[in-house]
Write a structure and sequence with these properties.
Protein name: Holliday junction branch migration complex subunit RuvA
GO molecular function, one term: DNA helicase activity
Shape: globular
Strand order of the largest sheet: 1-2-3-5-4
CATH class of the largest domain: Mainly Beta
Helix content: 40-55%
Subcellular location: Cytoplasm
Order of helices and strands: EEEHEEHHHHHHHHH
CATH superfamily of the largest domain: Nucleic acid-binding proteins
Largest sheet: 5 strands, mixed, barrel
Low-confidence stretches: 148-160, 165-170
Family: Belongs to the RuvA family.
Organism: Ruixingdingia sedimenti
Number of strands: 5
Distance between the termini: 54 Å
Strand content: 15-25%
C-alpha cells in the first residue's frame, strides 16, 4: 500500500495534484484546504496517502498530516460518507476542526461541508463521538506535516530542476495544546468523552490559550453545576 509520496508538483487542478516521484507521475486527490497549502509546479512536496480500491478504479487521496488521514479513514466508516464527502468535511474544517466538532456534538459544523446534509452530519457526530477523544489525543504525535525539509529532485528529467522544499510548518499549536490538555484531564480521572468536550469548548472560548490555559478553562467547565 502507498502510504506517502514525496516528489515535485507537476500540476495542480481542481481537487487534484500531479506529483512527480522520480519520473513517475501520481494523480492524488486532495481537499481544497490541502490544495491551497501545496506549493506551485516545480516545487517539492510530500503527502501522506490513502489508496481507495474498487473493482474498476484505483484512487489515491492525499493528506498533509497523519491526523488528517486518520480522520479521513474514520469518516468513511460512517454509513453514507464516501471519500468525496470525507474530503469535503476535511476541506472545510481541517483535522482539528473535525475533532472539535465531533467532540462537541456540533453537527452544524459538519453540515457546513458541501454535499453534507443534516442526517449525515448527525450520523457522523453520533457514530464517531466515542472515538474523537482518542484521535484528538494523537494530535501531538500525528500532526507533523509530511513535507520533509530536504532537497528533492526528479530523476531522469529532460532538464534538471533544482528544487528545495521550504522548511515544514510546525504542527498546529492548538492541536498540540488540546492533545496535551486532554491527556492531563484523563490522567486526573475524567472520562475521555467529557474531557474531550470540555477541551474542545475551552479551545473555542480561548483560541490563543496554551496547554495550561486550556486545562484551567476545561476544569471550570467540568465543575459540577449548582
Amino acid at each position: 500500500m502507498i502510504g506517502k509520496l514525496s516528489g515535485v508538483v507537476d500540476w495542480k487542478g481542481e481537487g487534484q495534484v500531479l506529483l512527480d516521484v522520480r519520473g513517475v507521475g501520481y494523480v492524488v486527490h486532495v481537499s481544497d484546504r490541502t490544495l491551497a497549502a501545496l506549493p506551485g509546479p516545480g516545487e517539492a512536496a510530500a503527502l501522506y496517502t490513502d489508496l481507495l480500491v474498487r473493482e474498476d478504479l484505483l484512487q489515491l487521496f492525499g493528506f498533509p498530516t497523519l491526523l488528517d488521514r486518520e480522520w479521513h479513514r474514520l469518516l468513511m466508516t460512517v454509513q453514507g460518507v464516501g471519500a468525496k464527502a470525507s474530503m469535503a468535511i476535511l476541506g472545510v474544517l481541517g483535522a482539528e476542526g473535525v475533532g472539535r466538532a465531533i467532540a462537541l456534538g456540533d453537527a452544524r459544523a459538519i453540515q457546513a461541508a458541501p454535499g453534507i446534509g443534516p442526517k449525515i452530519a448527525q450520523r457522523v457526530v453520533l457514530e464517531l463521538k466515542a472515538k474523537a477523544p482518542t484521535v484528538m489525543a494523537m494530535a501531538g504525535r500525528m500532526g507533523a506535516p509530511a513535507l520533509a525539509d530536504a532537497p528533492v529532485e526528479p530523476a531522469a528529467a529532460p532538464a534538471p530542476r533544482r528544487t528545495r522544499a521550504a522548511p515544514p510548518p510546525a504542527p498546529p499549536p492548538r492541536a498540540v495544546h488540546a492533545a496535551d490538555a486532554l491527556s492531563a484531564l484523563v490522567n486526573l480521572g475524567y472520562g475521555q468523552g467529557e474531557a474531550a468536550a470540555a477541551v474542545a469548548q475551552a479551545g473555542d472560548d480561548l483560541p490563543e490559550a496554551d496547554t495550561a490555559g486550556l486545562i484551567r478553562a476545561a476544569l471550570k467547565l467540568l465543575q459540577p453545576k449548582g
